[in-house]
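Why do we bother with a discrete structure alphabet at all? Because it lets us treat a fold like text: something you can write down, compare, and reason about line by line. To make this less abstract, here is a complete entry for CG13380. Read it the way you would read a sentence in a foreign language you are learning: slowly, and without expecting to understand everything at once.
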Amino acid sequence: MEKLKYELPADYKYEVHKCICMRPFMAYECTHCHHYFSGRLKEICQVHPSDIFLMDFRECPYCLAPNSQVKVSDLSMEQIKKIEEAALPNANDGF
């Protein structure tokens, strides 16, 4: 019995896609309103394209700018929390 032999086309590319569904949260900065936030930006997983994660951000939660205007922050969430929780000067401080 003769085995069948299949030749792949010359332009065939085999690609292995990595699942991104369980990627970690990151700190982001909106380049439009300059607010910081933590979470994940909406991305489509090549392995599970029909899976939807409802808490993934589709836009900036503050000004609704599209994800194209959101970038990964240079600051960590700990640094951002320290800035947000810092005491602001008041009128009695002489400023």
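What the structure line is telling us, in plain words: Residues 16 and 25 are 24 Å apart (CA to CA). The chain has a mean pLDDT of 91.
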